[in-house]
Amino acid sequence: MNGLDTLSKQRLEKLEAVKQEGIDPYPNTFPVNATVRDIRKQFGEMTPEQLENVTDRFVLAGRLMSIRDFGKAAFFHIQDRTGRLQAFIQKKTAGDGFSYLKKLDIGDFVGIKGKPFRTKTNELTVLVEDLQLLSKSLQPLPEKWHGLTDVETRYRQRYLDLIMNPVTRSVFEKRSAIIQTIRNFLLARDFLEVETPMMQPVAGGASARPFKTHHNALGLDLYLRIAPELYLKRLVIGGMERVFEINRNFRNEGISTQHNPEFTMLEFYQAYATYEDLMTLTEEMIGHVVQALVGGFAVEYQGQKVDFTPPWRRMTLRESLRTVGGFDDEFLRDPAKIRDFLEAREVQVNGKEGLGKLHTGIFEVEVESKLIQPTFIINYPLEVSPLSRRRSEDPTEVERFELFIVGREIANAFSELNDPVDQRERFLRQLEERKGDEENPPELDEDYVRALEYGMPPTGGEGIGIDRLVMILTDCPSIRDVILFPLLRPEKRGSE
């Protein structure tokens, strides 16, 4: 092993000493019959006198997190997936097991057998009758009083973060609970969970730069999906009227506190539903998740109270530019002024944008960050919504909404475009705009248009960013805090 410091070398020497005594330092023959949670649940309310009458013996296992050695007796803590528990071992009752403790280090996995009791300080503790090494740790854990605080190390060595920081473990336990609650909510409403391809011959369903790969046997270039949308809608066409997928998407774009190249989305489609129906469903679903998580409708995010009590505010994109952004109608009708405004804020424009695209640009720069409470922004411009149904009241707009919470886009939804002729024309216009893009050459998804020609029922579809939702509900400032292994630059080693 290279680069081991003094402590690690000492542990390696202990490992060899254990082997010399004929002890297997990595056995796999220690059946466990209880967890820390089990012990606390069963005996946490018992008095010392009641615990004296307990005759059952329990077998637990976990990581050794502390040792206090008093010569002929010692206290130590073990930590399993459910929590941390104190154990007490003494020479007169544990025999060889006590001498075994001298061979252990903080971080080792151990198995213990014993019965519960209370110490003089009334702490629930296991009186150890047998102790066994289950896995030798060769690297010392971070210093116990300061834990693991370096952010870069926490992301890069998530396993250490999970060992040392209970808050981190709690975030990912909550993440799992949030996803499961969403899944159960949709299943209870007759949605079918499905899986669609992650490698696709045409990158579609969203506007983003894809990751490209190649299938050798077929001699075929493929793209990691930027969205599952077009495949899920194929399923609606096929008669699966309510479908959802909790999926991984990949976008070859920047990394920030809100963006990771690999991220998790919930995407679902419901036949015979409009975008207005989906707004109601979204309020119910996210409200249900919040209640399940915190027992009410309010959470605190980075010092701001966020109230999920329905109904949530709804306003058109144009209205938001006036009421939240403070722009007057004269300015909003002048493309030249808007382009100058955006260029001054380092937003790229090419002079070909219509008012709809320019309005969307203003919204992203000046309005989005101010939408703290849950807010539906509705009726987007047609030119930025190639897959959405036109509004009959105003054909320059579509039946689309985006949900914003604490200045972040959390969901995007619309009444789906199911006119194949209109869809083909919009795809062609979109491809014309992307001409000359060598990294992401424009290509029309002919099979999707063909599927539409067989007929798709009126349908509402929505995508919700799971990572961003989890950030808000767990009070995490960065998307890296809610992704177990976020993408990072390669670690520099040695003299690099």
Write a concise synopsis of the structure shown.
The chain has 496 residues and is α+β, with helices and mostly antiparallel strands. The protein has helices at residues 6-20, 36-43, 48-52, 91-94, 96-101, 151-156, 158-164, 166-187, 229-237, 275-294, 317-323, 329-332, 335-344, 355-367, 420-433, 446-453, 466-473, and strands at 58-69, 73-80, 83-90, 109-118, 124-135, 192-193, 199-200, 212-215, 220-224, 242-250, 262-271, 298-301, 304-307, 313-316, 375-378, 400-405, 408-415, 459-465. It folds into two domains: 6-141, Nucleic acid-binding proteins (OB fold (Dihydrolipoamide Acetyltransferase, E2P), Beta Barrel); 163-324 and 371-481, Bira Bifunctional Protein, Domain 2 (BirA Bifunctional Protein, domain 2).
List the helices and strands and how they pair.
Layout: H1 6-20, H2 36-43, H3 48-52, E1 58-69, E2 73-80, E3 83-90, H4 91-94, H5 96-101, E4 109-118, E5 124-135, H6 151-156, H7 158-164, H8 166-187, E6 192-193, E7 199-200, E8 212-215, E9 220-224, H9 229-237, E10 242-250, E11 262-271, H10 275-294, E12 298-301, E13 304-307, E14 313-316, H11 317-323, H12 329-332, H13 335-344, H14 355-367, E15 375-378, E16 400-405, E17 408-415, H15 420-433, H16 446-453, E18 459-465, H17 466-473
Parallel strand pairs: 3-5, 6-10, 14-15
Antiparallel strand pairs: 1-2, 1-4, 2-3, 4-5, 7-9, 8-9, 10-11, 11-18, 12-13, 15-16, 16-17, 17-18
Helix pairs in contact: 7-8, 8-10, 11-14, 13-14, 15-16
